[in-house]
Amino acid sequence: MSTTAQIGVAGLAVMGENLVMNMADKGFSVAVYNRTTSKTDAFISGRAKNRSISGFHTVEDFVGALERPRKIMMMLKAGEVVDLFIDRLLPLLDQGDIIIDGGNSDYHDTIRRVAAVEARGLQYIGTGVSGGEEGALKGPSIMPGGSVLAWPHVEPIFQAISAKVANNEPCCAWMGPAGAGHFVKMVHNGIEYGDMQLICESYHVMGQLLGLSADDMQPIFSGWNQGDLSSYLVEITADILAYKDAEQNPLIDKILDTAGQKGTGKWTVDAALDHGIPLSLISESVFARCLSAQKDSRVLASSILNGPTIDGSFEKTQVVNRLERALYCAKIISYTQGFSLMAEASQEQDWDLDYGSIARIWRGGCIIRSVFLDKISQAFKRNPGLANLLFDKYFSQEVNKAQADLRSIVATAAQHGIPVPCFSAALAYFDGLRSSRLPANLLQAQRDYFGAHTYERLDRPRGEFFHTDWTGSGGSTTSSPYTK
User: Fold this and answer.
1) Per-residue pLDDT tens for 391-416?
2) CB half-sphere exposure, 261, CA atoms < 13 A
3) How buried is 65 (Cβ within 10 angstroms: 0-12 exposed, 13-18 middle, 19+ buried)?
C-alpha cells in the first residue's frame, strides 16, 4: 500500500462506505475517517480488509495521509455538520487542496462555501451523487460543480467510479461553477419525486378503478419496462409487486401508506418559486407525500366525506393501455418543467449548464435512469438553445398523440373519486402552455383594482405599465410592478 492515499473520504455511513469500496475497486488508494472511531475500525477490519484503504482516528492523521493536492470528500449529513467539519479541515490544509461535499447539500450553502474556501486559497467542489447504496458501490451518476481548477484533479477518480453507459461513457461530467452541481442534483431529486408519484398514481388507478391485485399489476409494469417507459423506477416497481411475505402474500399490501421525505423535493419547489418557474407536477408530488403522512385525518375523513362509487364497468386492457400512454405523456411534462427550472437558474446564476450532458449522465447509475433520457439528450443535441422540451419535434409529437389518453385518465379518475394530483398537474400545465391567452388579464385587473399594482396592455409595447382608477376615488399613485 502507498504511504499516501490518493483521496480521503470522511463519513462512513452507507453512501460513504460504498463509495470508498468503489474507489478501491477501481485501483485508487483511500484514507477514511469517521467521527465514531469504532465505525472506522469495524470497516477497516471488515469490508475494507486487505484493500488499499487505510483508517484514521484523528482529522490531523487523516489529512496527513493524503497526497498533494489533498482531495477530501465529505459524505456527511447536510447542514451544520458540513460547516463544522470544514472548519476543522481549514487549518490543516495548504493552498490548492480540495474539499469535496458529496452529500445532498442545499445549493445555497454550496455557493457560500465555494466562495469562503476559495478565499483561503483552497478549492471546493459540491457534487451530487445519485444511485443509492447500490449505485455508490457499483457506479453512481456524479454531478460535480464549484471550483473549476479542482476538476482536473478529481476527474479521473470520479469518472472511473461512475456508472458507464453505451461505449463505456461515464455518467459524470462537470456541471459548472459555484452551486451548479448540487442544484442539478436537487432538480434530479425533484424529478425523482414526480416520477415516483406518477407511478404510484398509475398503481392506484389500476387498483381502485380496475380492481387489479399486485399479482395482476406486476406483469403490466414489467411489460411497460420493455418500452418507452423503461426505467429503473418502473423496473423496481415490478419487482416490489412480485415480492411475497412469509405467508406468500404480496408484501406491498401490508406497507403503511404514509410516505417520508428528506427535503430535496421541497428545495426544488422552493427554487421554482424563487425563479418563477411553474413546477406544478413536482410540487404536487411533494404535497402528495405530505397528505399521505396525515393518515389519522384521512381515516377520519373517509368515514364522513362522501365520494362517487366505482361501477367497475371498464374494459381493463383499454384503460391500462391509456394509462401507459398517459404516464409517458406526464413524464415528458415533468421533465420539461425540471429542465425549465435548470435553464432559468443557469441564466440567473451564469452557470452555463449543458442540458444534453446532464441528460446523458442521468442515463446510468442514478435513480431516474431510463431510456427516455436519450431522447432528451438528442433534443438538446439538435438544438442546444431549446427553450422548452415540448418545443422539440419528438416531444411535441409524443404529447400531442398521448394528450387524449392523459385527459381520459384524469377525467375518469376524477369522476370516480381517485386522486391523481400529478397526472392532473401535467394536463393543466399542457393546456396552460398551449393557451395563447389565459385569464391573467382579469387577475391583473383585480390586482390593480385593490392594490394599484398596474397592468400592461395588448395594444401597447411590453414593459409599459398602466393604472386605472377603478372606483373614481383611488388616485394615481401605483405600486412598483414585479414579475415573481
Assistant:
1) 999 999 999 999 999 999 999 999 99
2) 24
3) buried
In 3D space, the residue among 118, 274, 115, 81 whose CA is nearest the CA of residue 186 turns out to be: 274
What mean pLDDT comes out for the span 441-464?
95
pLDDT greater than 70 at residue 2: no
8 A C-beta contact, residue 138 and residue 194: no
- Of the candidates 17, 39, 71, 192, the residue annotated as catalytic is 192
Residue 464 designated active-site? no
Q: Is the peptide bond before 140 cis (omega within 30 degrees of 0)?
A: no
Residue type, 113: R
pLDDT by residue (tens digit) across 37-75?
999 999 999 999 999 999 999 999 999 999 999 999 999
Of the candidates 48, 193, 172, 200, which has an alpha carbon nearest to the alpha carbon of residue 100? 172
**Confidence check: pLDDT of 477 > 90:** no
C-beta contacts of 380-384 below 8 A and 24+ residues apart: 380/354, 380/355, 380/356, 381/356, 384/355, 384/356
> First-to-last CA distance in the chain?
57
Catalytic residue among 17, 39, 71, 185: 185
DSSP state letter for 129:
E
Q: What is the Cα–Cα distance from 173 to 356, expressed in whole angstroms?
A: 11
Using alpha carbons, select from 472, 476, 475, 468 the residue that is nearest to residue 448: 468
Distance, CA of 343 to CA of 158 (rounded, Å):
25
The helix/strand/coil state of 244 is strand
What pLDDT digit, counting tens, does each position of 120-164 carry? 999 999 999 999 899 999 999 999 999 999 999 999 999 999 999
In this structure, are strands 123-130 and 141-146 parallel, antiparallel, or unpaired? antiparallel
Query: What are the grid coordinates assigned to 189, written together?
Result: 431529486
Residue 295 has a pLDDT of: 96
Q: What is the DSSP letter of 480?
A: P
H-helix or E-strand spanning residue 56: strand 53-56
Three cell numbers written together for 68: 498533494
pLDDT by residue (tens digit) across 349-362? 999 999 999 999 99
407-413 long-range contacts, Cβ below 8 Å, gap at least 24? 408/322, 408/326, 409/205, 409/319, 409/322, 409/323, 409/326, 410/326, 412/209, 412/319, 413/205, 413/209
Annotated active-site residue 185? The verdict is yes
Distances from the Cα of 467 to the Cαs of 400, 438, 476, 477, in angstroms? 40, 20, 7, 9
Task: Tell me how far apart the alpha carbons of residues 204 and 277 are, in angstroms, rounded to a whole number.
Answer: 29
Among 84-93, 137-146, 289-298, 310-319, name the one with the lowest average pLDDT.
310-319
pTM: 0.94
- For residue 123, the cross-strand partners are 98
